[in-house]
Amino acid sequence: MTVLENLLREIDKLSAEEVKELYQALIRKMAVSLKDPREFYDDWDDPEVDRAYASVWN
After folding, report:
1. What number of CA atoms fall less than 13 Å from residue 58's CA on the CB side?
2. Maximum Cα–Cα distance for the chain, whole Å?
3. Which of 44, 20, 21 has its CA nearest to residue 32?
4. Could you write out the DSSP letters of every residue in 30-48?
5. Contacts of 44 (CB under 8 A, 6+ apart)
6. pLDDT tens digits for the chain (58 residues)?
7. Contact 38, 44 (CB under 8 A)
8. Whole-model pTM?
């Protein structure tokens, strides 16, 4: 059995409130700080990428 399978079985034992708290903790753990997005996105100032996004949103 994998670690993920074990975790899923354990989640089944939690109350709805505990599952909600777990979900919120996971979201916080996965969140990306965008204080300086250039540190995270290597294409932040790429004009080609900007044009591609502009064509989707316009």
Report:
1. 6
2. 50
3. 44
4. H----SSHHHH-TTTT-HH
5. 37, 38
6. 799 999 999 999 999 999 999 999 999 888 877 788 888 888 999 999 999 988 888 6
7. yes
8. 0.53
